[in-house]
Design goal:
2 copies of one chain form a homodimer.
Chain A: H1 5-18, H2 25-32, H3 36-44, H4 51-64, H5 70-77, E1 80-87, H6 93-108, E2 112-117, H7 122-134, E3 137-142, H8 149-158, E4 162-165, E5 175-179, H9 181-195, E6 199-204, H10 210-226, E7 231-236, H11 241-253, E8 261-264, H12 267-280, E9 289-293, E10 307-310, H13 313-328, E11 337-340, E12 343-345
Parallel strand pairs in A: 1-2, 1-3, 3-4, 4-5, 5-11, 6-7, 6-8, 8-9, 9-10
Antiparallel strand pairs in A: 10-12
Helix pairs in contact in A: 2-3, 2-4, 6-13, 7-8, 9-10, 11-12
Chain A binds a DNA duplex (30 and 30 nucleotides) through helix 3 and helix 5.
Chain lengths: ~375, ~375
DNA sequence: AGCGCATATTGAATGGTTTCAATACATCCT
DNA sequence: AGGATGTATTGAAACCATTCAATATGCGCT
């Protein structure tokens, strides 16, 4: 007497169910009466499988509601479809928008994001990079800190594809996607100078950061190109609001080199600056003009509305993704360095400087200071 | 003649180096002349190892600069030290702050974050939950959508510990950490009523969301407790700024039930509302008072400064983490439901309603409407 | 010295997938 | 029919860390 077919099917089910463990390729293979290799081929689609067998396999997969174990897959392939995403914070809106865009495209393409935060500290960065590598991530997107060399070396040594975003690096080993800080800064500062500003304060987080260097170059070029005498002061500050405010105050009250325009490096510092100006009773744009790099989402809500350099966030994310994929598929011909353009948006926070203390008495339009 | 010790050591190195692959426990074990079991015991610290052997092992680890393969570890242990973090977006500051706090505590404790975004859509959520489970994450933090049932079932079935954050659920299977929306809303609305408001508009994203339900309960209770006649309108809207603005406009211009106070459910909608009021030329707080749930970071930068309900973001993250760890270590006695308190911050965007059209002529303080 | 007990150490088996050399099968041509 | 060519399928081996039953070692006591 032959075993009843239904009972037989039941018996195949048994293994996975009785042992209360998720079904494996082996379970699927048994139920579909094929080999594990065939199941794997159906799953990956890399090798042609006859329609008949494919049907059996798909049937078995859905019967058992089998799901791939990505850890085992990653172990075997030595690369998991995890993508490491390394940014300083998520609580800065520009970074958050980047993360958001990356997750969107990653999940659409069947990848997952492993997110690590560096807090802008090279040590922390190194530690976080090591964590990513322990998971054998298939690729890394990284917004590097000031001193990313050791992290870069580790990544290069591991052979993991890396795309550097937002902050250009001299390292010739990696693809990178940035926006043209030089041009954006040149455009913005040229406007300030045209309006008559001759004392500019540039507030930055870290002077050594490559983006900062580019921005300073753009600023200086704009001054040269204008042919005017413009004094520039750079204020570097840690992330500590109280300390920042007091340093800003002393800058703004130093009679001689008192700035009439402030350019701020990121949206967090802009928030603080804006708050500080209120606190000091300094009016914007009457007393001082303000321009922010990294557009905060409240730019058009405040009074005055804020002039900004708006980074092409989503374009950066999508471009970086494409580069990373190309590299993961080994299709990269050479190192790519893409530079996108940022949009400079002039709103009300920029105006001609006040008339008093004219450094060289430029012809700035007459303007009453009162506004009430 | 015995092999020279140095040559022997060199020979041990060979394997990993010649084959150009990262060293494994086996390589470490050979070099330290111990068994793989011992190496594993040193690594995990779960079993006591003599100081002598431990020294040898540590030495070998550093010599070879061995790093654990977390994929293999996860495969064997059936749980990886990856923590799935599931939120709607990162581009809303409240969510971004949560993510930030989670990453901080996770990386301090040697865990990594796998971040997935649900876009508030149950379908997407389910898909993302499946992705997490395929990686056999050790635990999940989730800010659920309106209809999380299937996701919950899947998670429960997989046996993965889950902590539900921010949005209370009736599901009795999972720990949860929320803040007291009822109390916060009660406090805020009581103040509005005390100031004389009798027409309140509540702008929400999704009426069915549990937090919304709680907030509405708090609102209604505040009205009951006040003993006054207060009309409430609820405006539900998708995430589409143009559509939202036009719906808001019709609400604000509907002569009869025209609200004098608006409560908005999250910071993104608050941004839109704020922008819309400007657009319509409706003054705040003169014509209408405004209160935001989820404190945007520009609350004190705009004019008028914004009244808000500030969620205890970091406390939520840390509490949720502790609950999750307890559950991952199987120390949980019962299902925990922690409810933290939110802070209600009254700033300038709240004032008594304008005098015109007194519904029942309450004694609100005389107030000239003109301002500039 | 001999015995028993406690602790440290060992290493084969395990987990789930993919890979790839080997095999089976089908097709076509002469 | 016989042989050659090409494609589909198979299943053992590999990936790497952990587990745990079995063994080895050390210690104390008589």
């Amino acid at each position: 007497m032959w075993p009843h077919p239904v009972a037989a099917a039941g018996k195949v089910l048994e293994e996975a169910i009785l042992k209360r463990r998720p079904p494996t390729v082996l379970d699927v293979a048994k139920r579909a009466s094929v080999s594990v290799g065939t199941v794997s081929n159906v799953l990956s689609g890399r090798v042609k499988v006859s329609d008949a067998k494919r049907g059996l396999v798909l049937r078995a997969i859905s019967d058992l509601s089998y799901t791939q174990n990505k850890l085992a897959q990653g172990l075997r392939q030595k690369r998991s479809p995890l993508i490491g995403l390394c940014v300083p914070f998520t609580s800065v809106s520009y970074f958050a928008a980047l993360v958001d865009a990356f997750e969107e495209v990653a999940s659409d393409r069947g990848f997952e994001i492993m997110q690590v935060l560096t807090r802008q500290e090279p040590e922390k960065e190194l530690q976080r990079v090591k964590s990513m590598l322990r998971y054998h991530v298939g690729g890394i997107m990284m917004l590097p800190s000031v001193a990313p060399q050791r992290s870069f070396d580790l990544i290069a040594e591991s052979g993991t594809p890396l795309v550097v975003i937002d902050r250009p690096t001299a390292d010739p080993r990696f693809d990178q996607v940035t926006f043209d800080n030089y041009a954006a800064m040149h455009e913005a500062v040229s406007r300030l100078i045209a309006l008559g500003h001759r004392h500019i304060l540039f507030v930055v987080r870290q002077r050594l950061l490559s983006v900062t260097v580019d921005r300073v170059r753009g600023l200086e070029a704009a001054i040269r190109d204008s042919g005017k005498q413009v004094a520039v002061n750079i204020l570097e500050c840690r992330y500590d609001e109280a300390a920042f405010i007091s340093r800003l105050e002393s800058e703004l009250k130093s009679g001689q080199r008192r700035p009439t325009a402030i350019v701020v490096s990121n949206s967090l510092l802009t928030t603080w600056t804006f708050r500080a100006l209120r606190l000091f009773g300094i009016r914007c744009p009457d007393d001082v003009s303000l321009l922010s790099i990294d557009e905060p989402d409240w730019s058009d809500l405040v009074d005055p509305t804020l002039s900004t350099i708006r980074p092409p966030t989503r374009a950066i994310a999508f471009t970086a993704w494409d580069l990373l994929m190309r590299r993961m598929r080994n299709e990269a011909q050479q190192v790519d360095r893409v530079e996108l353009r940022a949009e400079v948006i002039f709103r009300d926070s920029i105006a001609p400087p006040p008339r008093r203390k004219p450094a060289r008495s430029e012809a700035s339009p007459q303007r009453t200071m009162a506004r009430s």
